[in-house]
Amino acid sequence: GVGRHIWTQNTLNVRLLLAGLDALAEAGIRPMLLKGMALFVRSPDFMRKRQSTDSDVLVSPDQLEQAAAALARHGFEPRGFRWEDFAAPLIGSETSGATLRKPDQKSHLDLHWRPLSSITDPALAEAFLARAETHILQGRPVLLPTVTDQLFMALARAEPWDEEECLKRLVEAHMLLSSPAATVNWDTLAGMIAAYRLEALALAFLGDLDRHAGLGRPDGYLSGLEAAVTAEGWREFELRRIRPAQRTLRQDWGVRQTDERSGRDRGPTGVPGHGEIQLRGLGLNAATAGPLWQALRRRVRPGRFSDVQFLEGFSYPEAEGRWTSGQWSALAVPL
User: Fold this and answer.
1) Alpha helices by DSSP H, 74-139
2) From residue 263, how far is each of 12, 34, 100, 268, 315 by CA, in Å?
3) Handedness of CA 164, 169, 170, 172 (dihedral sign)
4) Can you give the pLDDT at residue 62?
5) Measuring CA to CA, which residue among 96, 78, 94 is closest to residue 322?
6) Which run of H or E residues covers position 23?
């Protein structure tokens, strides 16, 4: 009975996905399926074992506006966005995807322009799409990430502070690797882990997978990851075990510094130094406002302020504007 319920819900989700695929196909766009839907295409038997409330698809950033227009023509509606938001500013924002619905359906479609919210490097999406495999879903050609790339995405999403998300990604990885045809290019995986300095996270994730589900990894793989973890890597892992809302200002910027140095996330500004963090600890007042703004301007990436720049703390655009996260936000307005 549980299996039938899960299969039925997933089947309804697939119906909405097929409508989205047909809309995108008319515009000449073939998206990549992510997470649960990628699993279901590889092994339809998983549709009665893993519940998914949405369908995740990835398009190239340069196809985002075209994809949004195609889905709008077919009756999809954005949730928390307007269609005109699907432009360049959204691509560079903190979010990596948007939820789309049809008025008469409970399922939803998540349209992504980055495969991971935690890694903004555009080269990652380009590499995934270049290596993608073509599969068939109910007569429609779709792209799937390679097993190696999907495994990397699962471990990179497993933030140590979020136990529920970690469990979901471990289940996804276990299902992915349980297929007899699943082959992992361990060297490619190690290269991506090293490129983004995720050795500590990968060691924890793959270690849990190995202990509780079996993995079939090469001998010495985990010990090699452990040897590659630096002292900074261990410090970052401990910081990431703290829920973001509970981190101090210094801890929060410590995480941001490692994101910057690792090439995972390079926003419009660099990371504040020790003196600026001390200034921030004094709060924003008449004495600190000027020095704080000058410190921030020194970190801004080269470019002219020809329009409003959301430099720090602002998330993605919504129908009502933009909302801020964290304790600080900075906005540059040309006068």
Assistant:
1) 88-91, 122-131
2) 39, 23, 30, 13, 20
3) positive
4) 92
5) 94
6) helix 2-26
Note the Cα 24 to chain centre separation in Å: 22
* Residue at 226: amino acid letter: E
In eight-state DSSP terms, residue 132 is: P
Average pLDDT rounded to a whole number, residues 137-156: 95
Q: What is the pLDDT of residue 187?
A: 95
Specify whether the CB–CB gap between 10 and 2 falls below 8 A: no
The upper half-sphere exposure of residue 241, i.e. CA atoms within 13 Å in the direction of its Cβ, equals 9
pLDDT digits (tens, 9 = 90+) for 224-246: 999 999 999 999 999 999 998 89
CB 170 within 8 A of CB 209: yes
Answer whether 334's CB lies under 8 Å from 306's CB: yes
Distance of CA 169 to the CA centre of its chain: 13
Give the number of residues written for the chain: 335
Q: Which 8-state DSSP code applies to residue 50?
A: S
